[in-house]
């Protein structure tokens, strides 16, 4: 099977909102009148971002999900995406599962594939997403202010716990392992929550490399500090059954959660919770933004927690 036969069989679909999609040298996408484009790119490399054991359908889902999570962190509504796919060989069973998972998530968010590239090489997946957001309403990392409340969506740490099981460092029974493995391999981007937080959140980021690291981006860009209550960081019952040290590492530095960490004015708690309900996801207040630079992590008694771990770094981890 040649390159263009592969594209036609597994990736070509009827054009929707795109002005011009697959089949020409460029795609043409028009945002809604008066809207601004939001654009993000991620690359997934086998052995670096995903294990060889991941089912192709879940890999297709995750490849798009991690990009949609970036749009969510900016409060942008998805429009379209491109796919650059390097394959060691043409494996039709892999392609069928991969494209099925990819398009199931794409359809759920009404986003269409408008172009890209395929080539031979080590398995690499590159996706660029395009979204739209009203002018001046994009959620940024730079808007947090002293006195703002610090929030996070969903629960953190299950993806890292699954990785530790794969590494042989922890053990779980079958049902529990299936649950945390799904969290690692099939994350749910919080697009609806990002849109619901427009005009409410003062800053936001998605938790991709670990809460400490991704919150650190907000602190640096906003030039503020924060007090983070480690015991308030939401976690699943499966993770709560693990030793306290494992819980801390997984929730604070685990990564691959693809939840949103964000700030909002201190008096906006009811509105933030209403936004979470509207988006169908729990939101939890986990700290306070402060004028003094730096991150102070505390336990249930207010004592300092000194992290022994670092969030994921593509060139250090």
From TrEMBL:
Sites where the protein binds Mg(2+) 3: 25, 70, 206
Any single Pfam family the record assigns to this protein: AIRS_C
Residues the entry annotates as binding substrate: 49, 256, 312
Metal-binding found in the keyword field: yes
Coiled coil spans: none
GO BP term (any one): thiamine diphosphate biosynthetic process
Reaction equation(s) it catalyzes: thiamine phosphate + ATP = thiamine diphosphate + ADP
Keyword hit for Metal-binding: yes
Domain (PurM-like C-terminal) ranges: 145-298
Residues the entry annotates as binding ATP: 116-117, 141, 208
Annotated positions binding Mg(2+) 2: 42, 70
Residues at which Mg(2+) 5 binds: 209
Domain (PurM-like N-terminal): residue spans on this chain: 23-133
Known EC number: 2.7.4.16
Domain of life according to the entry: Bacteria
UniProtKB keywords: ATP-binding, Kinase, Magnesium, Metal-binding, Nucleotide-binding, Thiamine biosynthesis, Transferase
Binding site for Mg(2+) 4: 25, 40, 70
One MF annotation (Gene Ontology) recorded for this entry: magnesium ion binding
Enzyme class: transferase
Note: Reaction mechanism of ThiL seems to utilize a direct, inline transfer of the gamma-phosphate of ATP to TMP rather than a phosphorylated enzyme intermediate.
UniProt protein name: Thiamine-monophosphate kinase
